Amino acid sequence: MANNKMYDKGKIVAGLVIFAVMITFPFWFNLGKAAPAPELKLTEKAKAAKECVLEKAEMKAGHMQLLDIWREKVVREGSREYVNTKGKTYQMSLSKTCLDCHSNKAEFCDRCHDYASVNPYCWDCHIDNPKEKK
Amino acid sequence: MMQSSRRNFLKIAGLSAVGISGAKPVLDAFAAEGHGDERTEFEIRKNEKALTAQQWGMVIDTRKFESAADLEPLIEACHSLHNVPHIDENKVRHEVKWIWEDEYKHVFPTLAGKFVDERTEHLPFLALCNHCENPPCVRACPTKATFKREDGIVLMDFHRCIGCRFCMAACPYGSRSFNFKDPRPFIKERNPEFPTRMKGVVEKCNFCAERLAVGKKPACVEASNGAIAFGDMNDPESEVRELLKSNYTIRRKKGLGTEPAVYYIV
């Protein structure tokens, strides 16, 4: 006669339950607590300007590509002016153009960068608040 | 059933080719769809006032400087403009400099004889990047962070510098400095118009590329009260070439074949 008795059934089942609970802990612990997308604050100047170098959606998704083109052109070719599709001219400069409007780095740049967990090293060299005398 | 023959195959192939070429406008429309509406291209251009040359060069009239103190304002003009850190004097090995003062035997080691006339011996010489026509630093750079621009300026792309310091070993003029530390705490007054550097990159004189781009001459030239001339070495009519025609000039370590673009009237 086969012996199908499970030894220490109580302990094993309890252990399995504890194991299952622990391994799924991060999932149910964070349930419903997804960090909300950060809300960006625009400075008065940025609000007044209404439009950025590109359309808002394009800037949101592709400002890094734009900045990459800018840096290539400025450093390598010495071309420093950018005329956008609406015919408006901008100086290709992170500090002098972008941060001139968006002078609130902590509430504008950092919020999204922290949320997306990216660490651009722009500000190791580029001065983050050109208006403030340091 | 249609018999498959060479004749039939060619007929179908021909018809398909016509069909595809007829469909081209349709395909184009599909391809264009991804790029959105009828936007015109953006444009990137130089400032209208930008100064241009084939090979920028400099002629320094050392006769117009009497002591190291005369050079001080020039060095200060450059270093404050470009956020060059001023590191403690006792830490010479961490020194960062774009333009500096030194004596004849150090600036011109290949020319200085055993005995030098008194005037030359004590004359202060201004040293900076020579923006060589044949720059050894550019050949040494493994990342092309240092490159020779179309107008002859040997420029650095700090974004790309990995801090290997090959360029420093290659430069025969000691024109390059390495940021062993974060330079920011050593900048007395930060110029918001120009970036600083970060720890781990090499830096050097850029012939004020950022000023040339807006039609201004380099800061040291402006501060020199006419003692330094700046212009296109490839333009026979330029101010620098006129000076070279009428004065005896020397260059640093000319024998190395780097063809420095900085000349000294002695």
Helix content of chain A: 40-55%
Number of domains of chain B: 1
Number of strands of chain B: 11
Tertiary shape of chain B: elongated
Helix percent of chain B reads: 25-40%
Oligomer classification: heterodimer
Counting DSSP E segments of at least 2 residues, the number of strands of chain A comes to: 2
Low-confidence stretches of chain B: none
What gross morphology of chain A would you assign?
Answer: elongated
CATH class of chain B: Alpha Beta
Elements of chain B, N to C (H/E): HHEEHEHHEHEEHEEHHEHEE
- Strands of the widest sheet of chain A, in order across it, are 1-2
Structural class determined from secondary elements of chain A: mainly alpha
Q: How does this structure look, described?
A:
The complex is a heterodimer of chains A (134) and B (266). With 134 residues, chain A is mainly alpha-helical. Chain A contains six helices and two strands; from the N terminus they run ααααββαα. Chain A has a two-stranded antiparallel sheet. The longest helix of chain A has 22 residues, at 56-77. Chain A starts with 8 loop residues before the first helix and ends in a 19-residue tail after the last helix. The mean pLDDT of chain A is 88. Chain B has a single domain (56-265), classed as Alpha-Beta Plaits. Chain B is built from ten helices and eleven strands. Chain B has a four-stranded mixed β-sheet. The radius of gyration of chain B is 28 Å and the shape is elongated. Chain B starts with 5 loop residues before the first helix and ends with a strand. Chain A binds chain B through residues 69, 71, 73, 75-85, 92, 95-96, 121, 124-127, 130-134, and chain B through 39-47, 50, 147, 149-151, 155, 157-159, 189-190, 192-193, 195-198, 209, 212-214.
